[in-house]
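Mods, move this if it's the wrong board.
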Amino acid sequence: MQEIIEFLSSLKEILEYEFIQTERVHISLINIITLLMIMAIARISFYLISQLIKRARVNNEVIDKGKAYTMSQLVKYLIYSMATIFAIESLGINVSILIASSAALFVGIGLGLQNIFNDIVSGIFLLFEQSVAVGDVVEIDSLVGQVKEINIRTSRIKTRDGIMIIVPNSKLIGNNVINWSTENKRTRFVIKVGVMYGSDTRLVEKLLVECALNHPDVDNTPKPLVRFSSFGDSSLDFELLFWTEEAWHVEIIKSDIRFAIDDAFRKNNVTIPFPQRDLHIKSGFKD
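Not the wrong board. C-alpha cells:
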C-alpha cells in the first residue's frame, strides 16, 4: 500500500512539473496531456457528427448535398473554436484577459486585413444563406465552373478545363454571380445560325427544332423554339433556343447540335452564306 502511495505521489510530481512558469502562465505536463485530450475529443466529436449528418442526408431527401456540407462546416468551426478556447484555458491562460490585453493589436490587424475579414464574413453568409452551394455551376467574371468546396475564407471552383480556381468568398457575395444550378435545374441556352437569302424559312425552323429534339440531353418540355432574329447584311439570322438540365456539359451539347444542323442543311440544300462585302476602288491617277 505504501508503495502505491509513493508511486502516485511521484506520478503527481511528474505531471505537475512546470516546463514554463511566468507570472500568469504555468504550463506543466498535465496541461500538455489535457491539451492533447481536448484536441482528440474535438476531432472524434467532429467525425461522429459528420457521419450522423451524412447518414441523415442518405435517409432524408430534405437534406441535400449542399445543406449537409453547410451543416458539417458550421459544426466543424464550432467544435474547433470551442476546443481552441478550452485548450488555451487548460494551459493556464485566461482567455478574457488575453483578448482584453490584445484589443489594440486586434484593431490594428483588423485595419490592415479588412479584405481577409470581408472574405471570412462572406464565407459565413454563404454557409448560412446557401445562395451558392457545393456542386452548383456558377459564372463569375466570364469564368464558368463548378463549386467544389466553400471554406471560411475562400472557395474552390473547378473549370471545364479541369483547372481549380481559388476564389475569395467576397467575390461570390459582392459580384454579380450567375448560378446555373438553382432550384429549377433546367436552363435555357441559344445557338445562333444564319442562312442565305431566299432560303425556305419554315424549313429552316423545322430542321433546327428537329436537330435540338434529337439530342438526348435536350428537354422536350418546354419544346425548343426558333426565333427569326433579324435580316442580316448577308444572311437571314435565326436563334435556336432549347432547355437542358446538363448546364455543365452545355458546350458539348451545343457542338453536337451544330454538327446535326450542318448535316441537315446539307441534305436539304440550305446554305450558310459567307460574309459578303462590297469593295469600291477609286483610282487616284490622272492622265
